[in-house]
Amino acid sequence: MGGQRSAFWGRTVQVLYDHHHGGQRLGQEYPQQDAIDIETGMLLEILKELYSVFPSLRHVGSYVGPKSTLRKTLSELHELRTAGFTKAYLGVETGDDKLLAEIKKGVTAGEMLQAGKNLVNAGINLSSMVLLGIAGKGSRSREHAMETAKITNEMKPQYLAALTYTPVPNTALFQKVESGAFELPDPFETLEEMKIIFENITIDNLKFVGAHASNYLPVSGTLQRDREKMLGIVNRVLELKDMSALRSEQVRGL
User: Fold this and answer.
1) Residue 41 contacts by C-beta under 8 Å, 6 or more apart in sequence?
2) Which residue did the predictor score with more confidence, 139 or 148?
3) Full-model pTM
4) Domains by residue range for the chain, with CATH
């Protein structure tokens, strides 16, 4: 970590307090890997130390959970932003209330929206992360995409990052996939979801990041500026059902 554009982020805070805490490794007590769940005073101390140890550091960010975010007051979030907490990565997954319950996210769509809005209102650069394919096959897929576009429009994040659901062993949804209770959408169905999201995003200057290794077709750009270009890329693949244009299962990753 260094240079003018250095950034520190992680699923949990991993900071060595060599100067004042004898090398104590902070963040190990937070197995949920959600740095904003740490007590605000400690986070402020961590931020102060980071900017002190790394004078060229410009940004500090972390993955955050909706429930832990909602436990912070808007005043606390403003205080963290002033101290240099500049970016948050929020796993929104979907705007579909029923689907959030099914995947046991622990919050309603309304609560997820409020968590995101609080971060935005505090001046923290928000990256909302959503999952293509998480609704499975059928009509729920379209509902998921529509509701995801809706919550994005209302939340107004600076970034929208789309990943494609990949079954992870030892999870409830993986077991449903294995048993046949949950049917994974095919690659083109996940692209249909991406298309619906593009068509229904109405906010401007939203940076869409679709280059994640899990996605079958890497598409990125800024909405609304690049909307037609992005739709064109997706539509061409959908029209031709061109598997050669997609990442193979062998090269896709989590």
Assistant:
1) none
2) 148
3) 0.85
4) 1-62 (no CATH), 65-245 (3.20.20.70)
